[in-house]
Amino acid sequence: MIAAEALAAGLDTPAWCELAGLPRNADVRDIRDTFEQALAESGIGLPDRGLARRHALRRMAARLVEGETTLADLVTEHWWETEVETAAEQAFMALIPQCDCCIEYTTGLDRQTWEARLRNAALALTSSPPVGPGC
Q1: Contact, 44 vs 66, CB < 8 A?
Q2: Averaged pLDDT score across all residues of the chain
Q3: Using 50, 70 and 90 to split pLDDT, how confident is the model at 2?
Q4: Would you list the domain boundaries of the chain?
Q5: Secondary element (H or E) of residue 36
Q6: What is the mean pLDDT of residues 64-85?
Q7: Is residue 132 left, alpha or beta, with left meaning phi > 0 and alpha meaning psi from -120 to 50?
Q8: Which pTM value belongs to this model?
Q9: Which of 70-79's residues contact partners 24+ apart within 8 Å by CB, and which partners?
Q10: Using 50, 70 and 90 to split pLDDT, how confident is the model at 135?
Q11: Distance between CA 113 and CA 117 in Å, rounded?
Q12: Residue 88: what pLDDT?
């Protein structure tokens, strides 16, 4: 759908056309390679890995605020490996344990208090200024 939307927006390059025509079950590596080629043909650069993780963290926080994801999803994505810079990112990350069973041990909070603080931190993160384009 991203490729179709890019074509509709006027990014008419060979790679965008190829990407739009790939089947849903196409090899993930082929999709990524074609996507990167389409971006390059359009003059759009990919963010470095660290910035991309920060963007993803902000999107995860937004999904948590909107009720579109579960708290358990946070611990399965290895967010604790993400390098953060802003105070809002740090406050949110400080509440994400490495595993679901370690919430009380790593945060010092009971589950109900942790969930409330995590949702508040997610709201603060999503309300903070974006770290760059795409957030």
Answers
A1: no
A2: 85
A3: confident
A4: 2-42, 49-127
A5: helix 28-41
A6: 79
A7: left
A8: 0.66
A9: 71/115, 71/118, 72/100, 74/118, 75/99, 75/100
A10: low
A11: 6
A12: 95
